[in-house]
Automatic annotation (TrEMBL):
The keyword Heme does not apply. This is Dirigent protein. Keywords: Signal. Pfam families: DUF3237. Residues 1-17 form the signal peptide. InterPro entries: UPF0311.
Amino acid sequence: MRVPILLWLSLAMSSLADPAPPPLTFLYAVNLTFNGAGTLNIGQTAMGRRVAYPISGGTFSGPLMSGVALYGLDWGLTDNRGVFREDTIYYLYTNDSAVIMVRAIGIGRNVHHTFETSAAKYMWLNNVVAFAGSRSVVGAVGLDVWQTNGTRAGG
Ligand SMILES: *[C@@H]1O[C@H](CO)[C@@H](O)[C@H](O)[C@H]1NC(C)=O
Ligand SMILES: *[C@@H]1O[C@H](CO)[C@@H](O)[C@H](O)[C@H]1NC(C)=O
Ligand SMILES: *[C@@H]1O[C@H](CO)[C@@H](O)[C@H](O)[C@H]1NC(C)=O
């Protein structure tokens, strides 16, 4: 197929000169609470300092989904350079009775989220990769969760 040279040039130049940042769509803010019960200090392992922190509950709220965090576990690692590496599963329960499992993996303040659910209304979440930045909240861990690629239903 022949592509007109000017079109080809402008496509090539726009992809080189103008890498667009991925669109982000706000999904929800979540406050995860840790009441300390069941905290397990595994200690200094070959990977770093490992502590398992049970998540005792929480709340989340966004334009398309809101409800409570049921529980979860953060078995994060503080690596050999003192950087905390989050590794978490938590369960959301929406205000319309769907359970959504959330896997959150992060380094420092940057956290990656993926989702698993069987609820028809939230099926689109299974295809979402989200970025979360942490926020300081008294008495909780606050995260603002943004869907990457800006698409919503069917993402
Ligand atoms: C999280 O906690 C902060 C501080 O108490 C509050 O302002 C915010 O509304 C809470 N967010 C959610 C989703 O519960
Ligand atoms: C449930 O959450 C959704 C999304 O935030 C909101 O639009 C809806 O009003 C909430 N429903 C109830 C009954 O609170
Ligand atoms: C978002 O992702 C979908 C499918 O994964 C893709 O078809 C679409 O082009 C993407 N949209 C943007 C704006 O990147």
